[in-house]
Design brief:
Length: 360
C-alpha cells in the first residue's frame, strides 16, 4: 500500500504510480484503513477508465430509477418506494456509479444508526444499493468495485400476541371506535370509514392465516372461494402456493367485503388498485394498545405459535406458513418441545396411576 504521511499534515496521503504516471492526493482522513481502501478504489477507477472506457456512465440517481422501474409490479415495490427518499437524502445520488465508494456506503450505514433505525431496515437499504449496482452492471454501465458494510441482525426473543393482547389491538382498530382525534361516526367521510374498516379486516386475515402482509394486502378476488371456504394464496417471496381454509371470522369478513366489492382486489387503495405497503394505521393501533416490541409481522408469529402450542408439529406449521426451508420454521421448535414434554409428563402420570406407583 502506498499510504504515507507528508510534512506536518495530520492526514494520510495516497501516492502510487499507474501506467507510467505518478498519482498523489490527500485521503482527507487520519484513519489509515480508510485511506488504504480509498487507494484501492482509486486504482480500480483508473483501471476501469483505461480498459473499460468504452462503457457508458450513469449517475446513482439514474441507475436507481432504472432499477426501480424493473421492479414495478412485484409485491415489495412499495417498500422500495418507501426507502427512496432515504437513499436520496443520505447518498451522493449525483455521483456516477463508477465513482461510488465503499466509504459512501459506510457513511450511509452510520447515518442510519445515528437516526436510531433498526438493523433490518439498514440492511434493506444496503440491499437496494447492491441491487442497483448489480442492475447497472448487467446493463453494461461502468460501476466501481464496492465492499458493502456488514450489518449484524440481533437475535431477539420470539414475539407473539396473547389472546388479551389481540383483543386490545382489535379494540384499537375497531371501525366504530370513538377516541381522541377521531370525528364522530356521523361526521366521518366514506374514505375514512373505508380505511378504518380495511385496517381492521386486514389484521383479522393476518391473524387467522399467518400470511405475510403483502400476500394478504394485495390479494385478488379470483383467489378467494367462499363456496369452498378457501384462499389460494400465492407466496411471491418463495414462489409457491398454499390453499388455506378460512376460519369462521375470516369467512365473515370476506363475505361482507364481497357484498361491497369495488375492485379486483380484496383490499384496494383510493384508486381501486392493490393496497400496497400501507401499515401506518396498524402500527399506530399497536402503539395505542401498548404492545411492546410488536410489529405487523408479529401477527404471523402469533398464528404459528398458537398452532404449535395446540398440538401441531413444525412440519405442519411449515405448510401453513409457506416456508421453503424448514430451518425458518424451527424458530418455533422450543414451543413444540414444551408441548411434547407436557404430554410426556401426562402419559407417565397416567401409567403411574394405573400401576399404583404413587409416591409415599
Amino acid at each position: 500500500m502506498s499510504i504515507v504521511k507528508r510534512g506536518n499534515s495530520k492526514y494520510w496521503y495516497i501516492h502510487f504510480q499507474f501506467d507510467g504516471q505518478i498519482h498523489i492526493k490527500s485521503a482527507r482522513t487520519t484513519n489509515k484503513k480508510i485511506a488504504e481502501q480509498m487507494e484501492i478504489e482509486w486504482k480500480a477507477k483508473l483501471h476501469s477508465q483505461q480498459y473499460q472506457g468504452r462503457k457508458q456512465r450513469l449517475t446513482l440517481a439514474d441507475a436507481f430509477e432504472q432499477y426501480k422501474a424493473s421492479k414495478k409490479g412485484i409485491s415489495s415495490y412499495g417498500n422500495l418506494i418507501a426507502h427512496e427518499t432515504v437513499l436520496i437524502r443520505l447518498l451522493p445520488m449525483k455521483k456516477h456509479m463508477d465513482e461510488l465508494t465503499s466509504h459512501d456506503l459506510e457513511r450511509f450505514k452510520q447515518k442510519r444508526i445515528a437516526e436510531g433505525v433498526g438493523a433490518e431496515i439498514i440492511k434493506y437499504g444496503l440491499l437496494l444499493i447492491h441491487g442497483t449496482r448489480k442492475f447497472a452492471q448487467k446493463l453494461g454501465y461502468q460501476v466501481s468495485p464496492l465492499e458493502f458494510p456488514s450489518v449484524k441482525i440481533p437475535k431477539v426473543p420470539l414475539r407473539y400476541l396473547t389472546e388479551q393482547e389481540e383483543r386490545r389491538l382489535l379494540n384499537e382498530l375497531a371501525p366504530n371506535r370513538e377516541g381522541s382525534g377521531l370525528k364522530p361516526m356521523a361526521e366521518r367521510s366514506d374514505e375514512l370509514k373505508r380505511m378504518m374498516q380495511d385496517a381492521y379486516d386486514l389484521v383479522i386475515l393476518l391473524l387467522d392465516t399467518g400470511a405475510r402482509y403483502s400476500e394478504i394486502a394485495n390479494i385478488e378476488w379470483f383467489r378467494i372461494s367462499l363456496a369452498e371456504r378457501t384462499i389460494n394464496l400465492w407466496r411471491t417471496k418463495v414462489q409457491n402456493e398454499t390453499v388455506l381454509y378460512m376460519t369462521d371470522r375470516v369467512f365473515d369478513v370476506l363475505s361482507r367485503r364481497l357484498a361491497t366489492k369495488a375492485s379486483p382486489y380484496v383490499f384496494n387503495n383510493s384508486n381501486g388498485e392493490a393496497r400496497g405497503y400501507c401499515t401506518q394505521s396498524i402500527r399506530k393501533a399497536i402503539l395505542r394498545a401498548g404492545l411492546q416490541n410488536c410489529r405487523v409481522h408479529t401477527l404471523r408469529h402469533t398464528l404459528a405459535s398458537r398452532l404449535i402450542q395446540n398440538g401441531m408439529s413444525v412440519y405442519e406449521v411449515r405448510e401453513i406458513l409457506g416456508h421453503s426451508d424448514l430451518k425458518t420454521t424451527m424458530r418455533y421448535a422450543h414451543l413444540e418441545q414444551k408441548h411434547v414434554t407436557i404430554k410426556a409428563r401426562d402419559v407417565i402420570n397416567r401409567l403411574n396411576q394405573i400401576s399404583g406407583k404413587n409416591a409415599v
